[in-house]
Structures are given as C-alpha cells and as structure tokens.
Design a protein that fits this description.
It contains ten helices and eight strands. With 294 residues, it is an alpha/beta fold. The protein has a single domain (14-290), classed as TIM Barrel. It is globular.
Length: 294
Amino acid sequence: MTDEVLKSTPTRGASTLTRPNFEVPAGACDSHTHVFESGEKYPHVDKPHYTLPDGPLAKLESMCDFLGLAHYVIVQSSFYGTDNRCLLDALDQAGARARGVAMVDENVTDAQLQDMHRRGVRALRLDLFLRSSLPTSQIVEYIKRSVKRTQALGWHLQFYTPGWVVRDLIPFLGDLDADFVIDHMGYMLESDGLTRQDFDRLLSALKDGRGWMKLSGPYRLAKDGNYDRLRPLARAIVEQLPDRVIWGSDWPHIPNGGRDTGELLNLLADWIPEAGARNKILADNPAHLFGFRK
C-alpha cells in the first residue's frame, strides 16, 4: 500500500459488457463485489486509498442481470472501514439475492453481530494489509479472536491479505477451526518475493484444513494483463479444492471502473473448460458457503 490516492473512474455500463461465452448456471453468484453510495450519507475513512468509486447498488444489479448472475456478495471496502452502514442498507434493499461480508472493530457487541446476520452478513473480512507489520504471532491471535466471535453465528472468515502474510500464516492455517476464504488467489506476487513453491504449500494447507480460495482480482496479480500465466494457478486451485473454490469479479474494479466484467467472467471458460467444475465454482460452492437457496 502507498500513500497515493487513486482516482476512481466511471463504471462501465452493463449493456456494453462482453456477453458470457459459456452457459452461466442457474444460481450463479459473484462472490466478491463492493457497493458505494452517496458520500454525504456514508462518510469514508479519514485517509482512503482512492476517491469515491462509481459503484451504487443499482449498477451492481444491472451488471449481474446482464451477465446472468442470480446472486452476489457485497464485501465491506476499506473505503468505509468498520462503518458497515452502506453495506447493511444495500443488503436490506437486495433481500435474499445478496449476502454480505462485514469488517468490524474488536469491541463490536454480540447484538450488533446478530443484527448483521439478520440482515444478510455471513462472514467477517479481516484486513491483514492493515496488520501486515505485526508479528505473525499477533496476527494469529487476532484471527483466533475473530473465530471465537463468529462461531455461534456460523460465519466464515475472509482474508484480505498480502501474499507474504499468507506465506507466514501457512503453518497455522491447516489447524484453523473455522471455514476461511483467501482472496485474490492468494495474492502471491512475484514482485513481493513469493514463489510457486509458496503457492503450492498454501494449497496443501488449505486442502488439509478448512480453507477456501477465491478466483478474483486477476488484474491485481497479472498487472500487465497477461492472464494466461494465471491459468496454471487457477487449474491447481480447482484440482486441489474442487468443492472450496468461488469466483468474484471485484466489481467495480477500483480504481478502473471501465474494466469489462464480462471478460473477467469469461476467463473461467479458459481456465476451467469443464462445465461441471465451473458450475460448482459459480453456483454450488457459494450456495453452500453463503447459504443461498438453490
């Protein structure tokens, strides 16, 4: 993370997106989206990393409708920090079509968590970028405390984390007594010193434990746009964790709202040519994880 404030650009209109080049299954879910509404109604954190994105709920639903996505998951963004009002209001409007992933302070009350559950939240997002300078032992204790707060609700944890933190957590992940999701295919950037060996060790730990992986944010990993080199990673994820993989668009693609979400969805046809495996990733697996009715 840098101190530079990125300028968010307008979101691409749904009707201009590339159509899916495969049959999107019934009940398909975009498992990683964000929602942003009026800056006057929903204040941002003191020092956001980007300007207010063009990502209202209406545009999110238009995108999903155009691409044939029946469900979506709204993930709390760092833009709002632990103020989940925008997320919760969006869930109230969306109803059974959506689920949420919240970020909270550790002093959040059980009553507040129960209210979030009633309104559609099913996971906590742990921002380990914010804690990346802490010793691994302290990060582990933070994760354990988060598990204790959410077990009674049946929630899982979602790790938004740099790859080097994931690498250092590998010895702990296999024994974590909770379902958890690693964002953005592990976020193991070569520029941060991560290797294929680190990635394979991570997959092994997830397979032996209760870990899930999210196929999302390919432009975060292949910054040059060469998504072909991510194919072996995607294949390995699906082969090792066939029942614990989900897909997310990362809409509205901060800060580049002009990205084509349809092209990102179509990467699945290239990476996972087997229709049955794709259907698990898009429909069956998220239905199980987030509690969508089939």
